[in-house]
Amino acid sequence: EVQLVESGGGMVQPGGSLRLSCAASGFTFSSYDMSWVRQAPGKGPEWVSTIYAGGGTNYADSVKGRFTISRDNSKNTVYLQMNSLKPEDTAVYYCKTPNYWGQGTQVTVSS
Questions:
Q1: Is 78 in contact with 25 (CB distance < 8 Å)?
Q2: For every residue of 33-86, which 3-state class applies, written as one string?
Q3: Looking at residues 19-28, what average pLDDT do you find?
Q4: How far apart are CA 5 and CA 103, in angstroms?
Q5: What integer is the mean pLDDT of 9-18?
Q6: CA distance 52 to 7
């Protein structure tokens, strides 16, 4: 059974940082591209970043230069380091494979 479990969300002030983690199980983690997608209240899902099985990365323009995606294949975990957070980053953040989604973790950026 595929499981994706996100953690690390919370409330932070503008300009602050958070690191999200996604622990994966039930599939050969190192062989899969992993992505982060977010959904703000009242809006549709927005792709944030992808780290490919080969290690390359890609980012949405809205987070480029502020967010860093990484993976640790020995721990079957993908991370999203989020710096210089803005109120518009407030959303539920999901990690996903091409076919599966986690349950999400809430990130709230507010003063």
A1: no
A2: CEEEEEECCCCCEEEEEEECCCCCEEECCCCCCCEEEEEECCCCEEEEEECCCC
A3: 97
A4: 7
A5: 98
A6: 21
Q: Which amino acid is at 47?
A: W
- Residue 47 pLDDT: 98
pLDDT in tens, 71-103: 999 999 999 999 999 999 999 999 999 899 999
- The CA distance from 18 to 72, in Å, is 18
The pLDDT value recorded for residue 93 is: 98
Question: 82 and 60 in contact (C-beta within 8 Å)?
Answer: no
Residue in 89, 87, 84, 91 with CA at minimum distance from that of residue 16: 84
The pLDDT, as a whole number, for residue 111 is: 94
- Based on the number of CB atoms within 10 Å of its own CB, is 96 exposed (0-12), middle (13-18) or buried (19 or more)? buried
Report the SS3 class of residue 29: helix
Integer Cα distance of 78 and 76 in angstroms: 7
CA separation for the pair 12, 111 (Å, rounded): 8
